[in-house]
Description:
Keywords: Arginine metabolism, Cytoplasm, Hydrolase. This is Arginine deiminase. InterPro entries: Arg_deiminase (IPR003876). Pfam families: ADI (PF02274). The protein has 407 residues and is an alpha/beta fold. It has two domains: 16-74 and 154-403, L-arginine/glycine Amidinotransferase, Chain A (5-stranded Propeller), CATH 3.75.10.10; 75-151, Pentein (Orthogonal Bundle), CATH 1.10.3930. The chain is built from 13 helices and 19 strands. It has helices at residues 47-63, 71-78, 82-92, 95-111, 115-124, 139-143, 160-163, 184-194, 235-247, 284-287, 316-324, 337-345, 366-374, and strands at residues 16-21, 67-70, 126-127, 149-151, 164-167, 170-173, 203-204, 217-221, 224-229, 253-258, 272-276, 279-282, 291-298, 307-315, 329-332, 352-355, 358-362, 378-382, 399-403. The strands form six sheets. A five-stranded mixed β-sheet has the order 8-9-10-13-14. A hairpin with a 2-residue loop joins strand 16 (352-355) and strand 17 (358-362). The radius of gyration is 21 Å and the shape is globular. The two termini are 29 Å apart.
Amino acid sequence: MTMGAPTGVTSEVGRLDTVLLHRPGPELQRLTPRTNDQLLFDGLPWVERAQEEHDAFAELLRDRGVEVLLLVELLVEALADPAARERAVRDLVDERRVGLHLADALTSHLTSADATTLAGALVGGLTFEELPAAEGASLVRAMHHPHDFAVDPLPNLLFTRDSSVWVGDRVALTSLAMPARMRESAVLDLIYAHHPRFAGTPRAYAAHSAPLEGGDVLLLAPGVVAVGVGERTTPAGAESFARSLFADGLARAVLAVPIEQSRATMHLDTVCTMVDRDAVVMYPAVRDTLSAYTLTPDDDGAAGTPGVRVAGPAPFLEAAGAAMGTRLRVVETGLDPVTAEREQWDDGNNTLALAPGVVVAYERNAETNARLADAGIEVLAIAGSELGSGRGGPRCMSCPVARGAVA
Ligand SMILES: NC(=O)NCCC[C@H](N)C(=O)O
């Protein structure tokens, strides 16, 4: 691992240099028909196959010259720091769930655990039957089913896009909306705060808590950021994020884009991603209805509190083009409305750009991929039948840490 390697992202399509992925592991084995809805999976992935698919994704990125950072490796390395281990134990032990008695036993058990064991618990969670023995009787242990979670697993850590976002040279830890994902930010915080590679990295959105998820954040062009507002990111999240980006000089325009609050469109990147400097792949059902409020910094705000101006709403493509100073080309999810609906559901719009005009996409979305190819986009197709059962594609499964500047 290189210390002090370059970091920073100003666009969706600049040459991808470094990316953070999470190879799915035992946390996926926690999914059962009883828990998958609450844990935000639409089915039960075949874990070994999901890992093979993910390994092939990571290999493709490496073959294309991308440095792949794996979340658990970073986490174990970060946990070499005793301060990180102390924090991890605090994050893992929830007195409200396990009660004081078991909390004490769990704390002393975890305090003497090694970094790999702690990382395993942070990612995979713990069931009541996996808790250490404690002296004396425990009503909590007696009344819980042995398979109940004393610490929830994090199967959605796979979707590294959502839990942290790089804008310029800063990293923002997001504020995840769904209870099943809230603990992910603490895991990412451990890595960014304690891994030597990220020492001194400035934060964006640091003191804000309104819901904001990375799948809603698109870096349309240097200084121009779109933020979806729907099932996950709230209007307060979008506004606070914009204020924070303006205060740090990271953006000159932020587009707040209302999206339907539904499972199929949980994030903006489920209906629209960038595939070239001036091109998006977009779900046709929203093409003409998607709108945007344009936020810009208001320098007349009271001293110390950067204000915002709010314009619009205007049609999204118009507002985005105006802020970017270009006209966006649109490649639509293929073919007919039914195929488009199926391919949107299977993350056909959720592409990861490796460079302008080069994207990774799920192979199953044949019609959308054909349209992209017709539009001159190079499509690198990967298998994702198991990975996709959590409803996320190549963009959702990747957090760019460093990209080259776009010309
Ligand atoms: N950016 C994305 O669209 N991420 C996919 C997240 C899927 C995950 N199962 C979730 O519901 O949050």
